[in-house]
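Ticket closed. Logging final result for Serine hydroxymethyltransferase.
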Amino acid sequence: MTTTAATDIAATHPALSAADPELAALVGAEERLQADTLRLIPSENYVSAAVLEASGTVLQNKYSEGYPGRRYYEGQQNVDRVEALAVARAKALFGADHANVQPYSGSPANLAVYLAFAEPGDAVMGMALPMGGHLTHGWGVSATGSWFRGVQYGVRRDTGLVDLDEVRDLALKERPKVIFCGGTALPRTVDFAAFGEIAREAGAVLVADVAHVAGLIAGGAHPSPAGHVDVISTTTHKTLRGPRGAMLLSREEHARALDRAVFPGLQGGPHNQTTAAIAVALREAAQPSFRTYAHAVVANAKALAEALLARGFDLVSGGTDNHLILMDLTSRQVPGKTAAKALDRAGIVVNHNTVPYDPRKPFDPSGIRIGTPALTSRGLGTAHMPRVADWIDRGVTAAGRGDEDALAAIRAEVADLMAAFPAPGLPV
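Final structure:
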């Protein structure tokens, strides 16, 4: 670490630098990396300084098993109010009867859904992982696919869109206890109303996993599942720009079952410092400026998709309705993992990802997944998207021919632009 870098980290994190210089140096390195790279992973974002500060308060010191007014530890006078504040804000923002803000993250939140509504061996239904779903939607390598009988739906080969007629036929045939809609690599709007009709006909509990689009929903840039589904499961980071946590929102009739599934079913004490940061993020998401942000995320994604299409890239479903773009690099003859690693060296952070009907293995797939939440948080707009698309085009081309000089040139250009758009919450 250089003397300047050591001085910087000592100034921004004095206690950490004094207690553990080695760890402080790693934190400083990550701060600089997040500051001077173009972060395009759709599940990543920048939280505000207020969210970061709330995450590191003395609430870290407190155990609080149970729920407000019903704890197993004393001294909860302040913690109860913190959690009640987060719950009230979540209910208001998403129009829900009930909210539980205690799940540690998205996967535990989904596990609580199973514990609340299904028994081991029951059929559960969700989008197949290679088609854009999530591990916890009943996929085989997940506990949810081991403990329950996973029934999977996908997307059409010709359009890349969910065939709702096929979903209905499958649901009526298999009669799952739980149906998940939503996923992790879905560039198109989920038809919550249509899924709701299917679930009611099949007698299933419908869960909307909106982890990726929760911020867009809060900001009015994506339709809300409220009123169409029984349960909403979401993380609190990604487009919502909160800490790494999760929430379950539901109709009142499901409140008790979900609360009991989270605690004592799956967890002990909640992470109170995270609950506080969730409360801050929810307050921020209720502001008019956040609505502007959410719509800008979608506008940037659409503009970036158009610029990539103009450069000959193949996009799953032909584009995007939200924050996420799934690129199939088969026609470029560059594997997704190769492209992702090369782009990383160019200062463009993406993740390799399977595409529907991918002939390649998941660890070395054909595609990459990109998104616009983080760059929008920095203030980049639609006018910048052709430049971003050009960097991706040049980076993938350089990856194909092993041109490290070209990647280094892109890296310098990226750092220059990022310097002009400081990231929120970062001290560098």
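The chain has two domains: 54-285, 288-419. No further action required.
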